[in-house]
């Protein structure tokens, strides 16, 4: 049970790190692309957090 929880935390950290590097790469191209990538990344992150909340039955 502890291993499953640690794996979920590790999975989340890897996802957030990948998203951060993705956005950083777009900021290296130019600022406008970085802003769009940031917005898109936050949109995906918000959507996934809502899916997790609904799956656990804690949706507002």
From TrEMBL:
**Organism field:** Ligilactobacillus agilis
The name under which this protein is listed is: DUF1056 domain-containing protein
- InterPro entries found in the cross-reference section: DUF1056
| A Pfam entry, by short name | DUF1056
Any idea which UniProt keywords this protein has? Membrane, Transmembrane, Transmembrane helix
Domain of life of the native organism: Bacteria
Q: For this UniProt entry, which segments traverse the membrane?
A: 12-29, 35-53
């Amino acid at each position: 049970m502890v291993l499953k929880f640690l794996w979920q935390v590790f999975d989340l950290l890897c996802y957030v790190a990948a998203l951060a590097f993705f956005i950083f790469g777009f900021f290296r191209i130019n600022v406008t692309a970085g802003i769009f990538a940031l917005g898109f990344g936050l949109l995906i992150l918000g959507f996934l957090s809502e899916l997790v909340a609904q799956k656990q039955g804690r949706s507002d």
